[in-house]
Amino acid sequence: MKPQTSSQAGTFESSDVIFLIEPLPEKSGRKIELFSTVLHQYGESFKKTVVEMLDQYEMTDVHLIARDKGALEPTIKARLETAIKRSLGIHEGTVI
After folding, report:
1. pTM
2. Predicted confidence (pLDDT) per residue in 56-85, tens digit
3. How far apart are the C-alpha atoms of 50 and 77, rounded to whole Å?
4. Going from the N-terminus, what domains does the chain have, and what CATH number goes with each?
């Protein structure tokens, strides 16, 4: 699925993560930018979680920016799921 609109979820607070999603032109693929205070230690795990969630929703032609302040995996998944659903226009289970 391709994002319909730009969206975001999360905060810049400690132990949280903010995701920004923007649609890209057709056949652009995925552009993923990850920034984290713990990227050195958990970067591979963080990237794997992000890619798995994008695969789960079959997201294509998307620019995703993540700014992490040490969020745990359940928080990462919840924030990313919310950003993805908002970008797809699915508002069930999200707060606008």
Report:
1. 0.91
2. 999 999 999 999 999 999 999 999 999 999
3. 8
4. 7-88 (3.30.230.10)
